[in-house]
Amino acid sequence: MKANPDPCSSAGILRVSRTKSQAKVFYNRISRVYDLLADRNEGPIRNAALDLLKALPGERVLEIGFGTGHVLLALAGAVGPTGKVLGIDLSDRMVKRSQRDLSAAGLLERCELRCCDASELPYAAESLDAVFMSFTLELFDTPEIPEVLSECRRALKPGGRMVVAGVSKEEPGNFWLRIFEWMHVHMPRFVDCRPIYVRRALEAAGFQVRASLRMSMWIPVEIVLGAKPGLGACVSP
Fold it and tell me: Is residue 165 a contact partner of residue 27, using CB atoms and an 8 Å limit?
């Protein structure tokens, strides 16, 4: 069942005009240099989000939009030989790069990567222990955000948890936030994401927020831990 957009979680959020086919072409082109462009800023945020998720041995964990695979490597180490790391990404070149790095680390057997879209996850209901997204949810067009989160909730076990790190719109007076939104409007080919309300979006999708952090790159960021209601939902950070 698809979630209905919450006007409080989507109010004022800019739309995404670039198609997914265009996004795939773009990320395929920058797959070799993506870390040079983004890793210095995103790395500390990503690590803080992983600390909040706390992946455990034996768990089945999905990362949506894994990019160059840094989180996949960390998750594969955390879940151990009895666990499984699943990953989806629109870019087939990102998939190939991540598979290569996982293989070099001796961790590829613990992972299952697919090139597909998160709006229809290829996983059974209640089959995942956790879902992780870092700087990915804000790439989806505004009407798609509740659909993606609804799919995540469907695939999670009762009590399963989800961590989302994303560019936050919760500081509307922030000068750099306004600049970022201007760039998204006027240069959508290069600035495809835009600020969103991360915590509000998870709450609107039915997740129980257990913890949230505010951080900053040069723009504000939210990191939110949510739990699917049900058995074991009393997750602590």
Answer: no
Cβ partners under 8 Å of residue 196, min gap 6: 13, 137, 138, 145, 166, 167, 168, 169
Are 57 and 83 in contact by the 8 Å Cβ rule? The answer is yes
Residue 37 predicted with pLDDT over 70: no
How would you list the strands of the sheet with 128-134, edge to edge?
111-115, 84-89, 60-64, 128-134, 156-167, 220-227, 208-216
Task: Determine the distance from the C-alpha atom of residue 25 to the mean position of all C-alpha atoms in its chain, rounded to a whole number.
Answer: 19
Q: Judging by beta carbons within 10 Å of its beta carbon (0-12, 13-18, 19+), is residue 27 exposed, middle or buried?
A: buried
Which residues face 85 on adjacent strands? 61, 111
What are 142's two structure tokens? 């505004």
More confident residue, 81 or 193: 81
Q: What CATH number has the domain bearing residue 35? A: 3.40.50.150
How many domains does the chain fold into? 1
**Confidence band for 236, pLDDT divided at 50, 70 and 90:** very low
**68 CB contacts (<8 Å, ≥6 apart)?**
31, 34, 35, 39, 94, 97, 98, 101
Q: In the chain, what's the furthest Cα-to-Cα distance?
A: 47
pLDDT(5) > 90:
no
Top pLDDT among 188 and 226 is at 226
Q: Which domain holds residue 223?
A: 7-227
